[in-house]
Amino acid sequence: MRQPFVAGNWKMNGSRETATELLEDVVQGLVSSHCEAAVCPPYVYLADGLRIAKGSELVLGAQNVSEEESGAFTGEVSASMLQDFDCRYVIVGHSERRGLFGESDETVARKFMAAARQGLRPILCVGETLEEREQDVTEQVIRRQLDAVLNAAGVHAFVEAVVAYEPVWAIGTGQTASPEQAQAVHAMIRARVAEADDTIADRLRIIYGGSVKAGNAAELFARPDIDGGLIGGASLDADSFLSICESANSASTQ
Ligand SMILES: O=C(CO)COP(=O)(O)O
Known about the structure:
Elements: E1 5-9, H1 16-29, E2 36-40, H2 46-53, E3 59-62, H3 79-84, E4 87-92, H4 95-100, H5 105-117, E5 121-126, H6 130-134, H7 138-153, E6 162-165, H8 179-196, H9 198-203, E7 205-209, H10 217-221, E8 228-231, H11 238-253
Parallel strand pairs: 1-2, 1-8, 2-3, 3-4, 4-5, 5-6, 6-7, 7-8
Helix pairs in contact: 1-2, 1-11, 5-7, 7-8
The protein binds 1,3-dihydroxyacetonephosphate.
1,3-dihydroxyacetonephosphate is lined by residues 9, 94, 166, 171-172, 209-212, 230-234.
């Protein structure tokens, strides 16, 4: 049985004041449940996250990590620095990083490995653009993104990892993938990992991201291969985020 996982990706939003308030509200509202809940605030608020989440159910993650370990890399933050702030997770390969900051499949694979080397759990994002879906190449695109990491890191690196399927056309658009569309891709991702190792594939948590809201989370999480969500906009509101966590918890106990 896979433990459901819901992670909030705050992206570049908020201020120290709103971040602190949101962290406090999430920590207070999180009831002990089967669902693992994480938030990924901007780097500069991780220290507040560490202080506020200490001793609570809430887990911390980061939104990005350097592929390098240390040195003259102005503006970068290493995996060991994230460890210093008790981050358990780090997002790698988000489509905004791939699309806006030119991260290639190879860069993403190196970041995945840098995180794993330090014992951080990578949340590897994969997903197709609208154009790619319309050209009917979704499967090839996701296979390519996944294979870049599988080939570089090896399937055993997926024991601690999470894969997030985030169709680019569903991110921040209000246009959620239907539960059927998402389930089909999740099953395909699991089947691809199973080609390398059945047991690892069976235990791998594959979460969905792209306009997940309190109102549509339950039907997505009810699908057999959807093990939770990576939440953007709705994670900036404590009640919405907590309600999504509760949906993941209920789905897993049904
Ligand atoms: O990109 C996302 C999470 O990483 C999804 O963002 P939205 O939930 O705002 O669509």
